[in-house]
Design a protein that fits this description.
Layout: H1 2-11, H2 15-21, H3 34-56, H4 58-68
Helix pairs in contact: 3-4
Length: 77
């Protein structure tokens, strides 16, 4: 008898209350890992330092040009 009464009571529960009692869905947004952010900052710093060294030092600029583009080196005949 008790089981039948319990089933009747459970059947009378409105679905709205059940859905309201559920925990909210968690939205997972993709995050940039900390190592990727550090890598980007390191590459940006190296690029800026390299660009500054190329602009300031003629010796460094000539060494890089000779290393990367041996055909265009100034001291080749």
């Amino acid at each position: 008898m008790r089981e039948q009464r319990l089933l009747q009571l459970l059947d009378e529960i409105d679905e709205r209350y059940i859905t309201e009692s559920l925990p909210p869905e968690v939205i997972h947004r993709p995050r940039l890992p900390a190592w990727a952010a550090c890598l980007c900052m390191t590459l940006l710093t190296v690029a800026l330092l390299f660009g500054t060294a190329m602009a300031v030092s003629a010796d460094f600029r000539e060494a890089v040009r000779t290393l990367l583009f041996p055909v265009y080196a100034e001291d080749t005949p």
